[in-house]
Amino acid sequence: MSDVVVTVERVTKEYALGRTIVKALRGISLEIQRGEFLCIAGPSGSGKTTLLNLIGCLDKPTSGRIVIEGQDVSKLSPKELAWVRRRRLGFVFQTFNLVPVLTAYENVELPLLLLGVEAAERRRRVYELLEALGIGDLAHHRPDEMSGGQQQRVSIARALVTKPALVLADEPTANLDSETGKAIIELMHTLNTERGTTFVFSTHDPKVMERASRVVQIRDGLIDHM
User: CATH code at 122?
Assistant: First the structure.
C-alpha cells in the first residue's frame, strides 16, 4: 500500500457571489503521507477550510483532481462521495455536530449502523474508543450533560470508529477554552503516534501548529510555504 493517502493536483475552487467570481483556491498541489499530523494554516479567508472540504469529499473542485488511497474522487457522483466519506474519512468539527437526542455511545455507534456492522462488533469498537478517550463513564450521557471538551472527545471517537484512512479536523479547538483545547490536541497527537491515525487540521491556533509534524501555510488560495 502506498504511503500517500491523499494527492491534491492543481486544484482550483471558484464560487459565484452574485456577478462576482470568487477564487477560493488558485491551483493547490499537495501530498499527505500516511501517519502524518498535518496542519493546514492561514488567516481567515485564505482557503484552508475550502481545501479541507474538498479533501473531505464535501465539495468538488472547479478544476484539478483529488486522489484518496488511489481513487480519483473529483468525478464521483454524490452517492459515491457519500460512500467514500463513510468508509475512508472521519470528521471532527469545531461545533462537535453530535446528535442531541442520542447518548455518547449512540453518537459513536451511528456511523457503524450506517455501514451495517453487526451489533457485537459495534459494541466492542464503541466501548474500546470511549475508554481509550477517557469517557467510558459518559457512555449513556447525552451531549447536554457533557462539557465542551467531553463532547469533542465523543466527536473524536465517532471519527475514529470506522477506522478511517484519514481524520479531518476543522478548527477543532475553536469552541474550547485554552486548557481544554490543549488537552484535545495532545489526545489527538497520542492517537496519531500510538495508532498511526493520519490527521489533517485546518487552524490558525498556534498550539495546534506547534504539535504538527508539518504545517502547510495557505494565503489567498495558494500555498505560501510547507
Answer: 3.40.50.300
Comparing CA positions, the residue from 171, 178, 136, 174 lying closest to residue 153 is: 136
pTM of the model as a whole: 0.90
Give the bridge partners for 89, in sequence order.
Answer: 166
The CA distance from 193 to 200, in Å, is: 14
How many distinct structural domains can be found in the chain?
Answer: 1
Among 210, 213, 190, smallest CA distance to 200 is for 213
Using only C-alpha atoms, the chain has a radius of gyration, in whole angstroms, of 17
> What is the residue range of 155's domain?
35-62+77-225
Q: Cβ neighbours of residue 56 under 8 Å, at least 6 residues apart?
A: 85, 89, 91, 168
* DSSP one-letter code for 223: E
Q: Grid cell 462521495 — which residue?
A: 81
Start-to-end Cα distance in the chain: 25
pLDDT along the chain (226 residues), means of 10: 89 93 95 96 90 94 95 92 93 93 98 96 96 95 96 95 94 88 90 92 85 94 84
96-126 pLDDT tens trace: 999 999 999 999 999 999 999 999 999 999 9
The cell for 56 is 473531505
Q: Within a domain: residue 4?
A: no
Please tell me the distance from the alpha carbon of residue 208 to that of residue 192, in angstroms, as a whole number: 14
- List beta partners, residue 194: none
